[in-house]
Design a protein that fits this description.
mainly beta, seven-stranded mixed sheet, 50 strands, 6% helix, 54% strand
Length: 816
């Protein structure tokens, strides 16, 4: 309606008179105000819709003025980049602290004089900052918001084997110790003990320092703690993990198909991270069991920084518990420590001191909204001192033995989120390991010193680019330097040897991932290109993970990888380091000590429905470049130095059922594992670490704060080499063996129990009591058997080593 007609109608309705000039209202048209409005409301409406000012004089005369300097207006429509639809209720924050919201059309407007700089935010979208020029209602801005994408771990299933253990789409197992339930024989979420419940993971001698994954040796596994490679993994010479179970937030275990960012491993990868996924409140806890005591504390220094510490120490300095005695007997059987007492059992005296500790420190600091710096430090130490003396036929002999094992590590990392789609992480790390043995004997007036040290440092650069909600790319560079020193110093007769080797490796990494939850396709492929400076050698290692959901319940998975490793552990003599810690680290020389290489492929079938879970993995694995000295032979190959490989074909089966608070599972593993030594007379024979058949069962009940687990393990005996039936000359006994690993030890079986109960006081203090019994039936399980010549009796003797007898443990923990 023409403006002139509108004011005529108002004059007639409200008995007023308008005064104006013709040019102020010339050709002006708009929708008239509602007749039900008051005079002032109608004038406000006209002022808002026009470039006019109204002066009301006593509700009789109204002067109309044209506003010459109209405030400029900024208006815009907010839409989503994915579906191009308007975003309602987006928050608009002006620089003058005024706040607006968009309407159903994604529209908003404000006067330019209020602000020309504003930010737009909405849950699920990336916040955007805009500087706008002059606009009008006919030419508004169109602002596109990008969705905020947060990459989360793709969990295939939760509560596999126990609560707190899950399996990811990439085939890895993930353990959350703080959510951990219970497993047979375990009352604490020990990372390396827990992983032995996973099909395909074993320890033939019950040691966390000798974990065999799909037939590999322990040193072929890569153990990382917050990016630091750990060369020592066990306290008490392998019976307890060095990783504090009350500290770790996430433990990832890869049997195959590991990321291209993991190098130096031809077997599994165990990556432990103690950095929480989200901010946590202050906490403190302390606990004790029959082996050690520990404390843990986390304190938020500010909203953007916190410090976390943990410390653990053995209690063997103060008390020798039944658990400690069983551990001690297990570790020191058939070593030079116990051999001394068996040969000198008259007036025999012994004084021993054993202890261990570990401690960690983490400091995390956020800088602004995009940067975070994290410092991680860890120290681990085991120390054994044994003084022995005996008098036999008026001859007095003493031996003073000292064995020290320690690992220090540090990692400084910087992470920057450039935006919601691009992230960079850089970390610098160092790991230092030392194994030192010092033995003094009085009768021979001899001193023997053995030392093995490792210094490993490097830098990692990793970039992550999210191209779309389904597709992302990772790329990076790694530099790694490792130096290993081996020393042996003997007096009477004098002998001295010291060698030091250093290798520097550069690696370029490229990796892409596609994950479509609708079509149930997961595909991740990458490659690692290693360059070893010393050998001027390139090694290309492709990796692949593919998963397809045939249905919502059934998933098929194909994993493959090529990997290499330049460092390994060998055994020169079984009595090295008193026969307790016989292995020492060495570096490849690309000739007599080759670079180890592996290739592996596995086809997995995963089914989950109605609280049933079925997981079947079939795999083929081949490793080349191994040496006989790295395999722990105690037969005719103990002093043979040659190179070769091994080949494993296997199946891993797991079935699980959950019924309310009760969980039960059964697993079976089949391995056909054979050595190939082409330069040896017997070129093919069973692997030392072959367990042809392994079965495990567990029944777990969890209700409220009470948990109990009963489980059994059964496995066919590991291979051993028997003596030939040839005639033995009593005056000059000689060990004559049959074909290597021609027979097997007896069957291994064990029944374990554990239970925990947790309660809370009125003040919010939590208490947890745990009880476990290993080998309830006290079965005497043989874990190794070999032959040696007894120099005293000049005869051949059979030496047997046994697993733990019945071993109880009790723990108590207080948490604030």
């Amino acid at each position: 309606m023409p403006f002139r007609q509108i004011i005529i109608d108002i004059e007639q309705q409200h008995q007023v008179s308008f005064n104006y000039t013709e040019d102020a209202i010339f050709e002006l048209q708009l929708c008239p105000p509602k007749k039900s409005l008051s005079l002032d409301q109608k004038l406000q409406y006209l002022a808002k819709k026009t470039n006019l000012s109204f002066e009301n004089i006593g509700n009789k005369f109204i002067n109309i003025y044209k506003i010459e300097n109209e405030p400029k207006k900024i208006c815009a429509y907010i839409i989503s980049s994915t579906d191009k639809k308007p975003i309602e209720n987006a928050n608009i924050n002006l620089s003058n602290k005024t706040q607006l919201t968009t309407d159903a059309n994604g529209y908003f407007e404000f006067k330019k004089e209020d602000s020309s700089l504003f930010t737009i935010s909405h849950v699920g979208f990336v916040t955007k900052r805009i500087t706008a020029g002059n606009t009008d209602s006919k030419n508004c801005l169109e602002i596109v918001l990008e969705p905020e994408i947060t990459e989360l771990e793709e969990i295939k299933t939760n509560a596999i084997l126990a609560s707190g253990i899950s399996k990811n789409n990439d085939g890895s197992f993930q353990i959350k110790p703080k959510k951990f339930g219970i497993l047979p024989g375990l009352i604490e979420p020990d990372a390396l003990q827990t992983m032995q419940q996973i099909p395909g993971v074993n320890s033939l001698d019950e040691s966390v320092s000798s974990i065999n994954v799909r037939g590999g040796t322990h040193d072929q596994n890569l153990f990382l703690w917050n990016g630091i490679r750990m060369f020592q993994t066990g306290h008490f010479f392998g019976l307890i993990s060095v990783f504090n179970p009350n500290l770790a937030h996430t433990i990832s275990i890869y049997k195959n198909g590991s990321s291209a960012f993991f190098g130096e491993s031809v077997s599994s990868v165990v990556a432990i991270s103690s950095t929480p996924e989200k901010a946590e409140k202050n906490s403190f806890s302390a606990g004790i069991n029959m082996i050690n005591a520990d404390v843990y504390a986390k304190y938020n220094l500010s909203k953007k920084s916190y410090i976390e510490i943990s410390a653990r120490k053995s209690i063997t300095d103060f008390v020798e518990t039944p658990t400690y005695k069983e551990y001690f007997n297990k570790v020191f059987q058939n070593t030079t420590i116990t051999d001394f007492s068996s040969k000198h059992n008259i007036d025999y005296e012994k004084d021993k001191k054993f202890g261990f500790y570990d401690a960690t420190l983490k400091y995390a600091q956020k800088i602004g909204s995009k940067d975070q710096i994290v410092l991680d430090l860890i120290t681990i130490k085991d120390n054994l001192e044994v003084f022995q003396s005996a008098t036999l036929y008026d001859v007095h002999k003493t031996a003073n033995n000292n064995l020290r094992q320690q690992n220090y590590g540090g990692n400084l990392s910087w992470r920057r989120n450039w935006n919601s789609f691009n992230t960079t992480k850089i970390n610098i790390y160092n790991s230092s390991y030392e194994l030192l043995a010092n033995q003094k004997t009085s009768l021979e007036n001899q001193i023997v010193i053995q030392e093995n040290t490792v210094n490993n440092n490097g830098i990692n650069l990793e970039n992550n680019h999210i191209i779309s909600p389904k597709f992302s790319i990772n790329d990076g560079y790694q530099f790694n330097e490792i130096g290993i020193t081996n020393l042996e110093d003997v007096t009477n007769p004098d002998f001295y040897s010291k060698t030091k080797d250093v290798l520097r490796t550069h690696a370029l990494i490229f990796e892409g991932k596609y994950n479509d939850t609708l079509s149930r396709i997961y595909f991740k492929a990458g490659t690692r290109i290693n360059y070893i400076e010393k050998f001027k050698k390139y090694i290309v290692e492709p990796r692949m993970q593919f998963g397809y959901g045939i249905s919502k319940s059934l998933n098929i998975e194909l994993l493959g990888e090529l990997k290499s490793q330049t460092s390994q552990q060998i055994i020169d003599l079984q009595k090295d380091y008193f026969g307790i810690e016989k292995r020492r680290w060495i570096i490849s020389n690309n000739t007599t000590i080759p670079i180890q290489k592996s290739r592996q492929i596995s086809l997995n079938l995963f089914y989950k429905k109605n609280d049933w879970l079925l997981d079947i993995e079939n795999f083929y694995k081949k490793v080349t470049g191994i040496t006989t000295s790295s395999q722990g032979f105690q037969n005719q190959l103990e002093f043979v130095r040659t190179t070769g490989g091994y080949e494993v074909l296997g199946t891993e089966f797991l079935i699980q059922k959950k019924i309310n608070q009760f969980l039960t599972w059964f697993s079976y593993t089949y391995n056909n594992n054979n050595y190939h030594f082409s330069n040896y007379e017997f070129s093919r024979f069973p692997n030392n670490f072959e367990l042809t058949h392994t079965l495990s069962w567990a029944g777990i009940y969890e209700k409220n704060n009470f948990k109990i687990a009963l489980g059994a393990k059964w496995s066919s005996g590991r291979p051993k080499t028997s003596l030939a039936d040839s005639q033995i000359d009593p005056s000059d006994p000689v060990l004559v063996f049959n074909k290597p690993n021609n027979t097997n030890l007896h069957i291994f079986s064990q029944l374990n129990l554990s239970t925990t109960y947790k309660w809370e006081s009125e003040k919010g203090i939590q208490y947890k009591l745990g009880v476990s019994i290993l080998n309830i039936l006290n079965r005497k399980n043989e874990i190794s058997e070999y032959y040696r010549i007894n120099s005293l009796s000049n005869s051949i003797e059979e030496v047997e080593t046994f697993a733990l007898q019945r071993t109880p443990n009790v723990s108590f923990r207080v948490s604030l």
